[in-house]
Automatic annotation (TrEMBL):
Pfam families given in the database record: IMS (PF00817)
Positions of the UmuC domain: 41-165
The protein, known as: DNA polymerase Y family protein
Source superkingdom: Bacteria
Keywords for the protein's UniProt record, in alphabetical order: DNA damage
Residue stretches spanning the membrane: none
Protein family per UniProt: Belongs to the DNA polymerase type-Y family.
Amino acid sequence: MQSLWLYLHFPNLQLDSLCDLGALAPTTDDLAKDNDAHQGAKPIVILHAKSNTVIQLNQLALAAGIQKGMGLGTAAALDQHLQVVAYRADVEQKKLTEIAEHLYLVTSDICLFPPDGLLLRIHNMLTLYGGLAAYWRVLKGQLSHFRVSYHYATGQSPYAARMLARTQWDQISDHLPMLQHQIGVRQLSDSELSAKTVSKLNRVGIHTIADLMAISLKDIAKRFDIELVTYLGRLSGEFHHPIAFFHPQSRFQHYLELLYEISYTDSLLPPMKHQLQALEQFLKVRDRLTQKIIFTLHQRDADSLTLEVGSAQDEYQAAKWLQLIELKLAQLKLQAPVFALTLTTGSTQERCPDKADLFSARKGALSYLQLISILQARLGEQAVKQVCLTDDFRPDKVNHYQLPQSQHQPIDFRLQALRPSFLLNTAQPLTEKVTVIHGPERISTGWWDNQAMTRDYFIAQNSQQQWLWIFRTPNKKWFVHGLFS
């Protein structure tokens, strides 16, 4: 099988990561609150700090006359509203990994070429998709989920595909003569060779890859170092090119740097929704769920804030998490503007779908656990408790409160006796005439904790036709303890 590689080159990856926030653009009110403008209103450049030159720029900056390689002083003089963002290789690396994660759904062998490239081994995927054209359509569909510009090309070797993509050939072909021709017409400066090696070759009249390949590897080895021989062998596919293939991460972590700083919590929802959609995709393809997500809010000139959101029911859907986050954000106060967000998850579990009866009646939109999650997000986890039975017959102690879904499970306490719906906090002396309807029921217990009690309980009815739960003590005193509904 003839080797075929595809290279994807992302020349503006950090800038496109910021522009991807175009879908997350704040409303007019949000912009007025934050006194900022998002990326569509200003020219933006990505500045490399060491060289002090522009390496990426958007269309508004290009229209203002700014070019790649231009110094900051010159660029700023061309447009007074220029927005400058420092280049960060880690941002591009995270975006590249995110794209690779998404492409892994449709293709297996992916190699990261940081900070701006992906290499795909595709000859072993063509039979599955029925040819190169069909495979490329599927791959483009996956790339369309990202608002990133890219150049692409196929080649008979990783170096060949990389060279053609970085020179913007933007063609997909498995025709070997065409691929070899396209490689041959490229200049030496388009290759991976060092500037010193290119200068040496130019001095002896070698300017293109075809000129270089016209010389045998033996003759090249006599005049130049082994690095050039190795490169040519890998470029032509004669030498094996060692590749470390990408494996998807087992734990979700998503960092998102905002183009504009946010000072109000309600403006955080659009970027958070963007991250939750990435989380949903991550969990869905792995058929897993989580009960906790953790947002880290990176604040300017202040410590980062941690926002933990829990769900009593294992979840993966972005919409369900967003509903809980809205309630949490309503109680949060920012100490400083937020410039970035990081989303991580707690432990994840395999998804086990609930089994429902085909003929069961229609239920509400919220499950029991979903309702618990909403109440906990709004009121706090400690404020929501459920009533459980204990193996104690004393009316004051038979019930207790515990956190929903805690490890302590309620005891299966099958109490057949009649009990009132409303129990008084403290038993009150019986001061009216009643008619006993049922009883007595003797409760004599509690000797183990020095709170022993002996009472005879009755169900009675008063003159107002109210049903009372009354008891008599051993010294013949009567009390009302509860009322039946």
